[in-house]
Amino acid sequence: MSTTPLITPRASREQRAFRALLDAMSRPGSVHRLESGSQPGAAILALFEALVDHEVSFAVVPPAAETTEAILRLTGSRLAPVSEAAYVLATGPGIEVALANACTGDPEYPDRGATVIAVVESLAAEPGPGLELVLQGPGINGCCSLRVAGLPPRAVPLFLERNAEVPLGVDLVLLAPDGRLTCLPRYTRIQEAN
Amino acid sequence: MGYTAVRGGLDAIQNAEALVAAMPHCSDNPIDVRQVEAHLAIAVDRVMSEGGLIDPGLAAIAIKQAEGDLIEAAFLIRAYRSTLPRLGYSLPTDGSRMVVLRRISSIFRDIPGGQVLGLTRDYTQRLLDFDLLRSAAGHPPGQPPREVADPPAFPGVIGFLRNEGLLAPAPPEPSEDEPFDVTRMPLRFPAPRSAALQVLARGEAGAMLMLAYSSMRGYGGVGHGALGELRYGELSIRISHPITGRPVAIGHVRATEVHYLSGGHGSLQEGEAEEYYLGYGLVAGRDERKAISMAILDASLRYARPDDTQPVAQQEFVLTHVDSIESSGFVEHLKLPHYVTFQAGLQRSRKFKEMMGAAANG
Amino acid sequence: MVSVATLSATHGEAISGYSYGFLDAISRREIRRALLKAVAIPGYQVPFGSRELPIARGWGTGGLQITLSLIGPGDILKVIDQGDDASVNAQNLRRLAEKTSGIETTTETARATIIQTRHRVPEERLRSDQVLVLQCPIPEPLRRVEPSTSVARRMHAEGDYSRMWLAIYEDIVRRGELGGAAGYPVLVNGRYIMAPTPIPRWDIPRLDMAECLFLIGAGREKRVYAVPPYTSVVPLEFEDYRFEVESFPGQRCARCGSGDSFLDEVNLADGSRLFTCSDTAFCDAMQQNEEVVRW
Description:
Number of strands of chain A: 13
CATH topology of chain A: Rossmann fold
Mean pLDDT of chain B: 88
Number of domains of chain A: 1
Number of helices of chain B: 12
Largest interface: B-C, 58 and 74 residues
Oligomer: heterotrimer
Largest sheet of chain B: 4 strands, antiparallel
Strand content of chain B: 5-15%
């Protein structure tokens, strides 16, 4: 190799998105920012671009033709039922459906448990709008606080229920339209404050 | 504090690289890659087979670069293969449609299409040919082969036994829609047959020979059976045309294919079964030894008795240990510094020795 | 004859050119997905489609694949082997990363964002913005009692570690103390027994409730696993037979004088023996009286 390869714009985006996800997954409740365009859905596509391709499947719940098309075109991935997909994109009440049905893996391969990407209205580590969640578990020093607006009421109980038999479980990514994200991997213990 | 730590690791590597790079040029008569390709063709075939990439020109470069170390050459090919884009998958190829250059069967005296001995050393007398000391001028290749009008058909010999219902049914195996690709997914056990065959096709010839030999000598597996058929020739590679979807031939590769039979009452190792267990071997290039070994291992992994604990009957054992890049990498990694781990162990050994000494003394 | 080389060339990807970071996009994405799951399930070995690299299997391809999947233009990479940046293999791995990405490299632990290591954890405490990537020869901690990976996988699935505990107990019976030297098995997040890679016992306590992320890669065995920050990592021990780290009674480093680091033994020609810090960057910093934050 005579010249050092340059990183392409897409590879660079994917790398930064991945590092944001890795940091968020390692430190649940910590809020990170994806650099994505300001168009609606840009944050979702930035995430899918980094994670998904023809080697894995995804689901969209509730079904949304435009988003699905965009993801298919961008990633070459394929649709699968919610209960089988590796990555489940969920919005609004679909978040409860996703958490209730996504695959939790099997005892010898708990990594087959799905990743649910729930689109919420806003996310913050400091006080702000929405529900306050108190989090504990691996990656968290003692406990930490997270504010989420736009999670349906049964989301947290369903998350805890489906993850009651860790290591089987579902990992949750919360994504706001402004590109803020946080992760709640399956071992995270969540309490709703007040 | 007079001790200075040893430095110069990078210099050492760069000097070593310079030495290695000089080796292919270190005589006044360096070998040409075209010579490697033309006259060390079996070595070239082995490197393509274990490297998992069929390109004789690249294999010849690798052999020259590796000073004839065929496992190192296969490693070069594998690393190169990792960088190549996956363009697509071929359609399944039917071995019985091979353009046959050599074809024999040991289970019948005569077979449709005939026994075609072809190019083989099997019946030559192994006498060193000292004429080769003299570098004779090469002969230009002879006349191109003529097209034979009405070439004979070479129907697969196993077909006869299959039609009579004498072959044992396939054992229960994980079902598959698509072939498993071991270069993209890690093996899980029990592995589907396509994964097992792929690993064996790329497997290290010596490792497979040793396992097959052990089975023939009674150490488990299906043992000493019979060669249903061995053929060597050209297989056409066909893909689905990206636009019309129709099959189109894009080239051919040379391969050796073996059907091996065990069980039944025709082999030297009588099994309890009335039916024949079929083992299949398919190897890139001209490597009959490995294709036969592969077929013995395939049959052993599928049809060994459930209580057979010998290595050759253990799928995980066989498939894990026949890969030359992995086995040589790990065995040779012992050359890496291990002084920290050794230090940690040395401490304990000394402590234990002290303890034993103290116990003995009183 | 048309060769694969010609076919690929016309497909748009130059033969002599390589992707940034050597790995192609699909391989990188697969490793990244595996790493995210590894972090979500601390101590659990995630299988991945490990690719062949220009470095031999068994020589760090797992750690390297992790590093190459992490790095971007903003990163600074440090590579050590046995704690030494200048070790031949560390140099070689660093060179490959540099050649394929132009990444900035360093020997200073505090400056690095990613540290790839074989068999040591740096003496300097790692921060929350740092990732330690450990090279691993044998990711399966149960290999000692069970050679088959499929049986071991079932044992992990059921949390049935009785045979492992029995083996450790037998060590005590034989020697009056816990056995094992480097690579002592640990229990992670109270659930999975994990192979910490052949680091000395000295380094094991550093994995517990750390600020940094630990990622472990086994290329030949095709597994990655992780210990997130603030995760419990406890060596297997009994109440009356506790885990102990190595000691170097009366010894100090012959170069920097440290009495509180893991030491390498050096046997001299005259039959005498001296000790030096295994972590050369730490040793250099001590010699220059720099401030070093410890674990």
